[in-house]
Design goal:
single chain; alpha/beta; Rossmann fold; seven-stranded mixed sheet; 6 helices; 20% helix; 34% strand; globular
């Protein structure tokens, strides 16, 4: 079983729940969008890639199929049980130190918005620690105003996700509650998130020794960052 749920995070529904409130069986049902296309268009073919927060491997398998050499990281052993055909490491992202560098470090799923500032700094430091000098970090961030467009819902395959609330718990952090409805199952997740303006996001990168190289999508939700030059 996974270790204790993180403070401020919880989940309900069938099957195992991870420390950040994610339901493993739910994530096996969520279809993949255009994430892998974004990655492939932003980095060299055949690159070595460190995938942080891989979950059940929704992106992992397609990345391998497109020729990337993937090392997959997740803090949930029960998520990693679903990931096959690649090297996996079970660890919280903010504590990871493999002593290796990769062409690409991938931080998807809005993990950069972790509600705990210490965890967020640790996650970005992990990205910086593991990216090669001439490599890049690909980060998925929320577009500005995301937390103000509540409630809202979207189709997920044969299911539906409804974000029902985003409640301030401090000046910078919100408690977000999402509900997932499928014909045969219902899940909930509550988690902490730190909304960031573009300026705040770039400042957080700089504190970890990273800088924006390019915004990759029209909504600026995908970012390619690189190591800051040191004199």
């Amino acid at each position: 079983m996974d270790h204790t749920t993180r403070e401020g995070y919880s989940g309900t529904g069938p099957g195992p729940i991870t420390p950040d409130g994610c339901a493993v069986e739910l994530y096996e049902r969520i279809p993949l969008g255009d994430e892998v296309d974004v990655v492939q268009g932003a980095v060299p073919a055949g690159a070595s890639l460190l995938e942080l927060g891989c979950g059940v491997g929704r992106m992992t398998r397609p990345l391998v199929q497109r020729g990337f050499a993937v090392t997959a990281i997740d803090e949930s052993a029960e998520m990693l049980e679903r990931v096959t055909g690649v090297r996996t490491v079970c660890s919280p992202i903010e504590l990871l130190d493999l002593g290796e560098r990769f062409d690409v470090v991938l931080l998807a799923s809005f993990l950069v918005h972790a509600g705990d500032p210490q965890v967020r700094r640790g996650i970005l430091t992990t990205c910086q620690r593991h990216v090669a000098d001439n490599g890049c970090v690909l980060i998925q961030r929320r577009p500005e105003g995301w937390d103000d467009r509540i409630p809202r819902e979207a189709v997920l395959g044969d299911g539906l996700v409804r974000v029902v609330s985003s409640t301030p718990v401090s000046a910078d952090v919100r408690s977000v509650r999402a509900e997932y409805f499928f014909p045969d199952a219902h899940w909930t997740q509550t988690y902490l998130a730190h909304p960031m303006t573009e300026t705040e996001f770039e400042r957080a990168l700089a504190e970890a020794g990273l800088r924006v190289d390019a915004y990759l999508t029209p909504d600026r939700s995908w970012v390619r960052a690189v190591r800051m030059l040191t004199s």
